[in-house]
Structure formats: structure tokens, C-alpha cells
Amino acid sequence: MINIAVLGSTGSIGQNALEVARQFPDKFKVTALSTNSNIESIVKQANEFLPKFVCVGDKRFFGKLSGLPRNTKLLFGEQGLSDLLEERSISKVLLSISGSAALVPLLKAVKEGKSIALANKEALVMAGHLVMKQVEKTKASILPVDSEQSAIWQCLHGEDAHKLKHVYLTASGGPFLKASRSEIRRASLKKVLRHPRWKMGKKITVDSATLINKGLELLEAMFLFNLTSSQVKILIHPQALVHSMVEFIDGVVMAQISATDMRIPIQYALSYPERLKNLFPSVDFYKLKQLDFDKPDFNKFPALKLAYLAAEELGTMPCVLNAANEVCVEEFLKGRIKFIAITKIIGKVLDKHKNKLDFNLEDVLHSDAWARNQARLFIERERL
Predict the structure, then answer these.
(1) Would you kindly state where each structural domain of the chain is located, as residue ranges?
(2) Coil vs helix vs strand at 364
């Protein structure tokens, strides 16, 4: 029996993880759940799975939460999450807290030497060097949940990583793959959120529309697999069945192919090293007529250029890229800026940033706060 903690259990990935747990009640015991503020959902989840711990990030709910099972211990805030991660009975942590808020719990889980099924890319983008350095020290393990990183991980299994030549990250192309630049300039929120392949949260769906999501994955892959930016190639693959490919120095390319269902990589990360039989959809090669691959249009999707710039410079640039993007996406979802302003403002923030190559956690947090403030200043000017 694997005791799992699902951090961010009320989000899209968290809900899919609990669906995996439902299918294998003899394999997974949900020991802990967390949410920031979705109280109604987490109370329902707790009454179904009867976890030992429930943690609520938003302290405004302190003393106001009721309806939990009698033996479930309620924790609050960052300290509550830290206490939860010290629980020795938890053998695997699925970390699906969204955005930069995942950095501190990720570092804590690594410090505790946990096995971490990581479904958050922003934390590694912000401080990948620091995280992976700590992983080496504590012997914690990071098991990727993002379908692209999971694919690379599976393709590299049992292989000599030094013989790797290139990694190919695939992207569906999002809702604007075939749109003109003028259509993208006029893009409404409704069109941006209409992803052709995946059903995801709003933030990551916007990121997929700008393709900065693929830029964040570029950085994530660099840290996870110790790659340079030149080793990571991005391919547009509209069918979204090949989740990533790895090319070795002898010209052999290995690809991981599966249906577009997040439960598949989630299950593998939770069950690893075992593979479990499930009832999830699979690829029907008799019905599959073709697989298409193409180069991304960097002029139409300039966010990718910015991501490669941050990947080449490293230091605190990736952190600034991520922070500016989070602010811009949040403001776009509120209707305060246009879709095309997202990338424009990120570029301005990067241009103004004084990169720090040798950095610590304090530098990361300072750069994150600085970038958010600068992005908001540029947004106010954009709206004048």
C-alpha cells in the first residue's frame, strides 16, 4: 500500500490523481489532502478518502471549517503544509499546487527526502538549480507528472543519459495553431480557453495559447534531465499523441505515445516502478491515419523566443520570466489586458531585469517579487 499526499487536490491534476486512487484502492491510500481555498471540494474529498491530514492554505478559514471526518487533523497555511510533509507515513507526495506557490513545499518535500510526483513546472523554472542540488544531497526523487516530462523520463529509463543527443518536446499548438497574427491580436478570452486537445485549468490553458507553457517545459526539462537549451527542440504535433521523444547519439529516436489523458502519467508517477493495468483510453493505431510534426512559428508565438532567451542566460532570468507571466495571465483572465499584451509585458520585464547568475533562495524570492511588481507597473501603463 502506497500512502500518498495529494497537494492541490481540488485542482484539475489533483482530481485526476484521486480518480487514479479510486481505481486502485488496494494500491493507494490517500493520507493527506491540501487546497488553498476550495473548502467545499476538499471537505467532500476528505469524507470520501478519510485522510489523516487536511491542509488549507488560506488562513481566513481558520476556525470556520467544519464537516471533516472525526479522525482527520486540520492544518493551515505554509506551516501546516510543512508539518504535513514531515509525516513519515507519507511515502509519495503528488505536488499539484499551481504556480510559484509550489516552490516552498517542493523544497520542503525534497529536504524530507520524499518521493515526489511533480505536476508543477513553475517551481523548477524558478529555482531548478537549487532544487536539484538539494535532491542530490537528500536523495529525494522527483517523478515527473507533466505528460512531456514523463515521456522523456520513460524514454531515458535504463539508458545512458550521456549518450543523449536531443530531446523533442511536443506541443499541440494550442487554439491558435492555424490562426493568423491578426486573429491572435483580436483573441477573446473564450477563444483562448478553447484548447483543442486538453482539458486543463485556466492558467495553463492561457499558457498553452501563448506557447509559453512549452517554454516553461523547456526550462523544466533542462533542470530535470541536466540538459542545455540547445539540446531541447520543440515540435508542433497537433494530434498530441507523441508526448516527447529522445534522440541518442547513434541516431535512434525513442518516443512515448499514449492517449491524451493526464491520468496516465499521473498513475505511472504514483505507481512507479510498477505499471498497473487500467481502464483508461489507449491509442488505436488502426484508426490513426497520420502523425504530423512541424517547427513552431517563433514570430507568431514570440513567448517561445523569450523562454529560450531565459534558458540560455539562466541565473534569475527564468524566475523573472515565470513571475511576469503569472501576473500577466492573471490580469488577462480578469479582462484587464489584451491577450497580445501578455508576451509584450513579459519581454519588457526581462529587458529591465539585471540577471544574477550565482543565486540563493533569497535571491529567487526577491527576483520573483521584483518581476511581479514590474509587470504590474507595465500593465498599468498599458491600460492608460
Answers:
(1) 2-144, 146-260+280-314, 316-384
(2) helix
